[in-house]
C-alpha cells in the first residue's frame, strides 16, 4: 500500500496536535530532591509532538502546516515566530483567549543520558470537529481548492474528535473518488504514543481508520509487547487491510509492516555523541512521512527516518539538520 501514499508535490502535509513551550534544564546528574542545584545550561524551545514534526518536515524540504489550538498568552508570539522562521504555515490555528500556554520542563542528565519531562497543560482546550470543518475541510470544498495531500494526527485526549475528523476525511475521499477516478485521496496517519490513548482507540474504533499508524515503543510495551516484531504482529491485525504500521524502538531501530511488503526493519543510526534525544521520535515520524510521500519503498522510508532521527540525537534542537542536506 505504501506505493499509494505518495502525494502531489504542490500539496502540504498538515500536522495536527500540540505546540507548547519547552524549558530545558541541563545538569551533570539528576537532581536530588529538596536540594539546590546549579544547571550547566538552560534554554527555551518550542515543543509539542505535532509542532516538532511539522518543523522537521519543513527543514527537510517538505511543505508543512501546523494546526492546533494556541493560547493568547505571552508565549504566543514566540511560538508563531518560531514556526514562521522554519517555514511552517500556521494561518488556520485556533487562537484561544483566557487560556495558558502548555509548558514542559525537560530535565536532562548528562551522566545518565536520561530525559525527564514535566508537562503542564492548565486550561488550553483541544481541537474539535467544528474547528476542523471551519478551517480545514469545509463542506463542499472542491478538490481543486484542497491544499493537503496528507493529514497527520497526534493521538491526544480529544480522541473522539480525532475519530470524527478522520471519518470526515474518509467520506470526503469516497465522495470525490466516486465523482472523479483521477482524484488522489488525502492520506491519513495517526500517532499512538501516549499510553492513555489505548482505551480510546478501541472505544472509537480508531485502529481501522488511518492509512498509516505510528506506534511508540512505550505504547507497545504498555500493551504487553516486548519487541518491535511482536508489536507488529500483535497490532497489525487490528488495522484495515491496506494500512501500514510503523514502530520505532529506540536503540534497536524501527520496524514496519504492510500486506504487500510484509515486515521490514531498519537499524538504528547512532551519532558519535548523544547530545539531545528530545524530539527524536517526532523527527523519525516526520522523516518517514516525507519519504512515504515521495513513494519510496517502506524499508527505505523507515531507514531514512532512523538516519534523520539519529542525526537529531547528536545535536541540540533541530536547526542543524539543515546542515546535513538529507536527500530522500
UniProtKB/TrEMBL annotation:
CDD domains given in the database record: Ketohexokinase
An annotated GO BP: fructose metabolic process
Domain of life of the source: Eukaryota
Domain Carbohydrate kinase PfkB intervals: 11-319
One Pfam family matching this protein: PfkB
Residue stretches in coiled coil: none
GO molecular function terms listed in the Swiss-Prot or TrEMBL record: ketohexokinase activity
PANTHER family (alphabetical): KETOHEXOKINASE (PTHR42774:SF3), PHOSPHOTRANSFERASE SYSTEM TRANSPORT PROTEIN (PTHR42774)
Identification of the protein by name: Ketohexokinase
Amino acid at each position: 500500500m505504501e506505493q499509494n501514499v505518495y502525494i502531489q508535490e504542490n500539496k502540504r502535509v498538515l500536522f495536527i496536535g500540540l505546540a507548547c513551550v519547552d524549558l530545558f534544564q541541563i545538569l551533570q546528574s539528576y537532581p536530588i530532591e529538596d536540594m539546590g542545584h546549579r544547571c550547566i545550561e538552560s534554554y527555551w524551545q518550542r515543543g509539542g509532538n505535532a509542532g516538532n514534526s511539522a518543523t522537521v518536515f519543513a527543514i527537510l524540504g517538505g511543505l508543512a502546516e501546523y494546526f492546533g489550538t494556541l493560547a493568547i498568552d505571552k508565549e504566543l508570539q514566540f511560538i508563531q515566530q518560531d514556526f514562521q522562521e522554519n517555514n511552517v504555515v500556521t494561518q488556520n490555528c485556533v487562537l484561544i483567549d483566557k487560556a495558558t500556554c502548555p509548558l514542559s520542563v525537560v530535565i536532562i542528565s548528562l551522566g545518565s543520558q536520561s530525559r525527564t519531562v514535566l508537562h503542564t497543560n492548565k486550561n488550553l482546550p483541544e481541537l474539535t470537529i467544528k474547528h476542523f470543518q471551519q478551517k480545514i475541510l469545509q463542506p463542499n470544498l472542491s478538490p481543486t481548492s484542497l491544499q493537503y495531500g496528507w493529514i497527520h494526527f497526534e493521538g491526544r485526549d480529544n480522541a473522539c474528535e480525532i475519530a470524527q475528523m478522520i471519518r470526515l476525511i474518509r467520506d470526503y475521499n469516497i465522495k470525490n473518488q466516486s465523482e472523479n477516478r483521477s482524484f488522489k485521496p488525502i492520506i491519513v496517519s495517526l500517532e499512538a504514543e501516549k499510553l492513555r490513548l489505548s482505551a480510546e482507540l478501541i472505544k472509537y474504533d480508531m485502529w481501522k481508520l488511518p492509512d498509516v499508524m505510528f506506534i511508540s515503543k512505550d505504547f507497545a510495551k504498555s500493551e504487553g509487547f516486548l519487541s518491535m516484531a511482536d508489536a507488529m504482529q500483535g497490532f497489525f491485525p487490528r488495522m484495515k487491510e491496506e494500512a501500514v504500521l510503523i514502530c520505532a524502538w529506540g536503540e534497536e531501530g524501527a520496524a514496519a509492516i504492510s500486506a504487500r511488503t510484509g515486515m521490514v526493519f531498519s537499524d538504528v543510526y547512532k551519532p558519535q555523541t548523544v547530545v539531545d534525544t528530545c524530539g527524536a521520535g517526532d523527527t523519525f515520524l516526520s522523516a518517514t512521512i516525507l519519504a512515504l510521500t515521495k513513494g519510496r519503498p517502506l524499508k527505505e522510508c523507515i531507514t531514512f527516518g532512523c538516519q534523520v532521527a539519529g542525526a537529531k540525537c547528536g545535536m541540540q534542537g533541530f536547526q542543524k539538520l539543515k546542515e546535513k542536506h538529507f536527500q530522500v
